[in-house]
């Protein structure tokens, strides 16, 4: 009887290990299937800096206009659209990470364009632009909808481990930052702000004082 129980436990252990290996192998195959030829450059206006996304060279922030002569200064997958703000010699920009669990995460970072030192300002935070009075508008406590938090078990597990999200829901807090100091000025919970049109009309098109009032 004991031998039978031991054999059953060993079988269960083998099944668990095999399932885990299959799971991670499937994720890697999905990641490989998503790979496509890419070679895009996005100059940061007013600087000699370019954000590059390429399968030929490392993703990152490069100094120099031309690919052949530019120099990689900060490696990473950085935003190139409305997730960029230049304040003096400081670049405030979104940095994206694709985890082994197939989740896309975003953190807001500051890059000193004199030293190219990178500092993380806020995790799970995405810069979305400037409001009418010039403050930076971000979404924080935020996971991109492409992660499908309502149905993705791994996304829900990350939400539980972080303690900043409600598992199984798309949620966000609108965060206002001083563009010069990065100081938090105001925050308000608004899950509907993940919608681009709502974010534009309620927050980006208005001044901070109007939002507060």
How would you describe what is shown here?
The chain is an alpha+beta fold and 213 residues long. The protein has four helices and 13 strands. Strands 5, 6, 7, 8 and 9 form a five-stranded antiparallel beta sheet that branches. The chain has a four-stranded antiparallel beta sheet with strand order 1-2-3-4, with no helix packed on it. The chain is flat. The chain starts with a helix and ends with a helix.
Estimate the mean pLDDT confidence.
82
Q: Into which percentage range does the β-strand content fall?
A: 25-35%
Low-confidence stretches: none
Helical stretch count?
4
Helical content band: 25-40%
The assembly state of the depicted protein chains is: single chain
Question: What general outline do the C-alpha atoms trace?
Answer: flat
Task: Please write the string of helix (H) and strand (E) elements.
Answer: HEEEEEEEEEEEHEEHH
The biggest sheet amounts to: 5 strands, antiparallel
Determine the N-to-C terminus distance: 73 Å
How large is the radius of gyration?
21 Å
Class inferred from helices and paired strands: alpha+beta
Number of DSSP strand runs: 13
Topology, pairings included?
Layout: H1 2-33, E1 39-43, E2 49-54, E3 60-63, E4 71-75, E5 77-78, E6 84-87, E7 90-98, E8 104-112, E9 118-122, E10 125-130, E11 136-140, H2 153-162, E12 173-177, E13 184-189, H3 196-204, H4 208-212
Antiparallel strand pairs: 1-2, 2-3, 3-4, 5-7, 6-7, 7-8, 8-9, 10-11, 11-12, 12-13
What's a concise summary of this model?
The protein is an alpha+beta fold and 213 residues long. The chain is 26% helix and 33% strand.
